[in-house]
Amino acid sequence: MEIDTINLNPEPVPNVLCNAEKSENSEFSPVSSSSGSDQISEADIESSDHDSNNIEDVRDNFKTELARWAVIHNITFMAVDELLKLCRFHLPHLQLPNSSKTLLKTPKAYAIANISGGQYFHFGLELQLLHLLSSKRCTSNVLEVMLGIDGLPISKSSKKQFWPILGICKVLDERPFIIGLYFSLVSKPTSVDQFLQPLVQEFGKLKEMGLWHEHVRFDVKIKCVIADAPARNYIKCCVAFNGYSGCDRCVQKGDWSGRVIFTDQTASLRTDVDFINQSDKSHHVGITPLLLLDIGLVSDVILDYMHLICLGVVKKFLKKGPGRRDHFLIERVDNSLFACQID
Fold first, then answer.
1. Taking the complete model, does pTM exceed 0.85, yes or no?
2. Which class for 125: exposed (0-12), middle (13-18), buried (19 or more C-beta within 10 A)?
3. How many Cβ atoms from other residues are within 10 Å of residue 237's Cβ?
4. According to a count of CB atoms within 10 Å of the terminal CB, is the N or C end of the chain lower?
5. Would you call 148 helix, strand, or coil by DSSP?
6. Average pLDDT, consecutive stretches of 10 residues, N- to C-terminus, the chain (343 residues)
7. Cβ-count burial 203-221 (b if 16+ within 10 Å, e if not)
8. Calpha distance 14→9 (Å, rounded)
9. Half-sphere exposure in the Cβ direction for 56 (13 Å, CA)
10. Are both 298 and 165 inside the same structural domain?
11. Is residue 193 domain-shared with residue 164, that is, in the same domain?
């Protein structure tokens, strides 16, 4: 009969039972010795496993793409929850979660570190760059990041303040992203080493291993550090900007004339090598962790246009210069400033 050559039940359980009975009773040996039946059964099993793996891959890919879509377009949690509810009703085979927090894998706890003077949370340079790479196409394998560090008072009635570490990668996005955030009730971070340690350690890892996205390696470099005068002195471990050796660009000693002033316009300029060697001992108050970022601590810690010009010279000029009614002179000043605008 043809029944001996047709597998009526390809499921694995009867085969296991058949093999077990074969070992105990030789009467079943003619039936169980049918190699064709065993081969067809195993092929069907592998095919069913392959199909199930494909279904799981489709589900995972859909979840990943849906989460990416929600993040890129800033979809609210309530909107994502409503969408998940509709998808679970009409597309139950996708097995989507009930909550947007589960879909987006929102962490329930944050690793907030207690450092000298306050608390610090490191969002991560690598994580932010990967997020940008997932939403923007990059044609360059080198990602140059500009860092911005400054204090941010929360209110005038208290000493509460933030000290964010921001980054900009112009090949990906013109908008800044946050790398780390320090909060204190009383003051800036009392230890610059603890404040910058997470960033320095992460950059060291990225410099050695590179940043990998979709099997492509990206080299991460720090292009420059942007900070106002007090923040520059703090992160570079230098004397205050109004000290006798406080000039960032030259080695001259200031003179006292009601305040410290620098009158010598031909003084020798500072160099990155002199800064590393601390040739001018009176300019330094410690060793900065920025040395590990592989940047020039004179040439790459740039002077801030906003504080120097917009909130510095221009503000003083408007206070002590012509009155607000002299529109023609103000217009001339505006045109001159636009002509000198730094790209």
1. no
2. buried
3. 19
4. C
5. strand
6. 43 43 44 46 55 73 86 85 90 86 76 88 92 84 93 89 94 92 92 94 93 91 92 93 90 90 90 93 93 92 83 73 64 77 55
7. beebbeeebebeeeebebe
8. 7
9. 6
10. yes
11. yes
